[in-house]
Amino acid sequence: MTVPVLVVGAGPTGLTAAAVLRDLGVPCRVVDRRPGPGIAPKGLVLWSGALECLDRLGVAEKIAETALPLTGGSYWSNGRRLAVARFGGLTGTAFPGPLCVPQPVTERALHARLTELGGTVEWETEATAVAVNRGGPEESVTVTLRSARGEETLTVPWLIAADGARGLVRDSVGIPFEGHTFDRMFLIGDGRLEGAPADAEVQHHIAPDGVLVIVPQPDGHRVFFDMEPDGQTEPPTEELLQRLLDERGPGGLRLHDTWWASRFRVHAKVAPRFREGPVLLAGDAVHAHTTAGGQGLNTGVQDGYDVGWKLASVVRGADPALLDSFEAERRPASVRAVANGDQQTRMWLLRSPAARLLRNTVLRLLSATGLLEKKAIPLLAQLDLDHSMSPAVADLDGAPAVPRALRLGRRSPDLALAPVHGTTARSLHAHLSAGRHTVLVHGDLAAGELAARAAAVVGERGAGDVVRVLWIQPANTAPAELPQDGAGFAVARDAGDALGGAGAPWCAYLRPDGVVAARSGPAGLDDLLSRLPSRPPRITPVPAQGPVLSSPPAPRRPARTPPLSASLERGDPHAARRRRTGGSAT
After folding, report:
1. What angle do CA 117, 22, 42 make, to 5 degrees?
2. Quick one: which H or E segment has residue 444?
3. N or C terminus of the chain with fewer C-beta within 10 Å?
4. Euclidean distance between CA atoms 43 and 164, whole angstroms
5. CATH code for 185-264?
6. pTM of the full structure
7. CA distances from 413 to 54, 384, 436, 500 (A)
8. Using one digit for the tens of pLDDT, what is the confidence trace for 176-228?
9. Residue 412: helix, strand or coil by DSSP?
């Protein structure tokens, strides 16, 4: 067997990365020390950014079948509503609001998709040692795996570490975890909540002695509390949860038939590096979030998607420097998400009467002016990430002709399109499905000729399975048709004139994650095409399984506790920008 990539960890992050790799034609091996897919519903909310990634993998629709669309979030004090932000108003996306769906549903959908793509997960297989090999012509990673078969040692060109906040890989390659752990203990209970409001609004009840969060679920509710540590480590009893509910809730609520409960500490941490040579770290392995805003699962899915398509591109012949953009883009996004959750949690836990009064006043003002909804929802949805300073994006010759709707380094909005010549997709994102690279060419017949040329180059380079060419004709113009067949690319029309009228043709390269990576005029098309994967995967032979020992597996290595040294503020998301312009865990 040959495999260029080993994925350690089969939670949402690892499964997303593995599915993207397989979908883009790159085989990988996936291992996880657990006996099977997760059953604990730790993550509960999927926001638009993660849902778009899952949609391109073909699993969002399946997940949405059993999900509950959340309608808004509100803050309450002394039984009175201080503020509300309505969900569901985001534009330019097929997912205008968040969905409430237990994490195991997402994991099962991703695992099923990986299986469809020919991948498997080796459960009860634990990475016990990881070492980066330097000094040869190419770096590699040697990993020792332990399972019921014994131990095996293998060497792979690339390793994706998605093994969680207490996983082995980050420690093994010498990357610290910077941030802090909250002093308070946090409790969660999932069950039936008699007397709860009928709508699907997330309620935050902030009392002098702590917070109560009520999250509607498809088949019940989640209640969430903080409290002083009491020395207990077992999950909270239903009686304790009910007592806290009575003390902090609006009254008249009864929790029963609890099916899952947990007691844990929350952290706000980000690793200073997301890569160590051929080892790329993603998800909880490099960022630990509080529960506020439900950002951990969402950030991890987007990490997995990003590292998956970028590593697939490199294995298929793209410049290895593309992987430098993984940390350059995903770390600032993680710092922002962690800081947002950290700030929300601190706001919940204010104890000073003066500080609580100020908080409540600010919440009322932000809600009354609409700023809470305008600012908070896009931040949580993670659709507004700016990668314009990334080393993986560039404006090329003739780029000023490209309209503002496609901003460099930003996610492309889901623009309305009209089908032409038998195509059926009615939006830009529908053409971006299945994680392909997209060369977008806009204009009349001359643009069609550019699109045909681009499709021919893609075919000659052997990348037709992962690169699509899309010719978009301007709105309010007669449909143009090439004299030749036009095979190798799709044709659509701009239904809303968002991309400008008939003028000089222009081109844009949309990455598999929908981000505008390059823009050009006709003269820059060759430069734009040079940035795409150019050949079938380069496979490096490695043993699928090393020597199997006759002895049984040794006990698992005790989990290491990350250091609590540096503060979260050391993770500055703007540091990279300044350098360039100057020269849930639980």
Report:
1. 85
2. none
3. N
4. 13
5. 3.30.70.2450
6. 0.88
7. 16, 10, 16, 15
8. 999 999 999 999 999 999 999 889 999 999 999 999 999 999 999 999 999 99
9. coil
